[in-house]
């Protein structure tokens, strides 16, 4: 059974800080072929589409398309602030390996 991805409070708070919902936008998390490990994450502000899974919190939305959803089953979408910069990160239990950049993985 596939579980939907989870979004942390910190990720929703960051979306609120940048005013995503105020602009009618959601954080889109998608998985595409490519990258140094076979798959890569695409994370961007986008308009929600009809077949998206919508995850809501703090008045904000994170959307995942139906094709990417199986790759993100039970993953955690978070926001991380580190010395090298602040970014949305995905902790994915389905990934068997990932590369140093954190945007590419294999299954």
Structural key phrases:
107 residues; mainly beta; Hypothetical Protein Aq_1857, Chain: A; six-stranded mixed beta sheet; three-stranded mixed beta sheet
Description of the molecule:
With 107 residues, this protein is mainly β. It has a single domain (6-106), classed as HesB-like domain (Hypothetical Protein Aq_1857, Chain: A, Sandwich), CATH 2.60.300. It contains one helix and nine strands, in the order βαββββββββ. Strand 4 (53-57) and strand 5 form a beta hairpin. It is globular.
Summarize the SSE layout with pairings.
Blueprint: E1 6-7, H1 9-17, E2 26-33, E3 39-46, E4 53-57, E5 60-64, E6 76-82, E7 85-91, E8 97-98, E9 104-106
Let me know the number of strands.
9
Give the CATH superfamily: HesB-like domain
Rounded mean pLDDT score: 90
Uncertain residue segments: none
Q: How many helices?
A: 1
Side-by-side strand order of the widest sheet: 4-5-2-3-9-8
Reading off the top of the CATH hierarchy, the class is best stated as Mainly Beta
Number of domains in the coordinates?
A: 1
Q: Biggest sheet, in brief? A: 6 strands, mixed
Shape: globular
């Amino acid at each position: 059974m596939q579980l939907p991805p989870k979004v942390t409070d910190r990720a929703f708070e960051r979306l609120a800080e940048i005013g995503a919902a105020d602009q009618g936008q959601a954080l889109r998390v998608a998985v595409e072929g490519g990258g140094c490990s076979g798959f890569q994450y695409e994370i961007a502000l986008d308009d929600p589409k009809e077949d998206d899974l919508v995850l809501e919190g703090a008045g904000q939305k994170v959307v995942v398309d139906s094709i990417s959803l199986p790759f993100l089953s039970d993953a955690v979408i978070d926001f991380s602030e580190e010395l090298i910069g602040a970014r949305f990160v995905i902790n994915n239990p389905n990934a068997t390996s990932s590369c140093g950049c954190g945007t590419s993985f294999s299954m």
